[in-house]
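Supplementary Text 2. Reproducibility record for the structural model of the 236-residue chain.

All settings were left at their defaults, and a single model was retained for analysis rather than an ensemble. We include the record here because the model underlies the residue-level annotations in Supplementary Table 4.
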Amino acid sequence: MTEDFTEEEKKGLYKAIYSRRDVRSHFTSRSIDDDILARILNAAHHAPSVGFSQPWNFILIKEMITKKKIKNSFEQEKSRSSKLIEEPKRSKYLSFKLEGILESPINLCVTYDPTKFGPFVIGRTSIPEAGLYSVCCAVQNLWLAARTEGIGLGWVSILSNDALKEVLELPEHVVPIAYLCLGYVDEFAQKPDLETAGWLPRLDLKDVVYFEKWQDTENTEWNQIQEMIKTNLDYA
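Retained model, structure tokens:
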């Protein structure tokens, strides 16, 4: 585990990062073997966490009755959120396929439990949200591990947390962070769906990196990396 990564291993990591997609469609009926699912969950469980608190739990779901209840919450929330935007963008938003709750063989809810290991967690006293960030790290680990196994994953955020807590019988103090759809897919898209649909553009790396302070993009101490960043060094 302490050896350097080989060039082939590095390419594999970057390939997973750049080809990962938020999958909402193209799920197949192929089931996920238990050993593969266990590997993916173990990768998530090895994410970094503030104070080594490991504040996540993973609720696996395959019963259709549960999925239909969650899908109902999605439909209600999508309809409600559509009222926040005007035409023609509203119709475009409503036309998007934004989840695969019923189509994916496995649904997974990742939760945050702030009470694990007691009230004092190293690193969380100044930034209480660090526990939530830790759970997001677990989700990212899970997402990349799924991609390397050829399994699609979609994060459904158009949901009511109150509905999730009720349907999944979560304790009051446990917070649902991510509701995920997992399954094999016919294909992984070349670009994110919303980029392809023209909903939003991908920002260039140079547009989101500053040097030493906010909005400083011309700091002369960083000339070399400024030029490299402008090339958008994606995995080829």
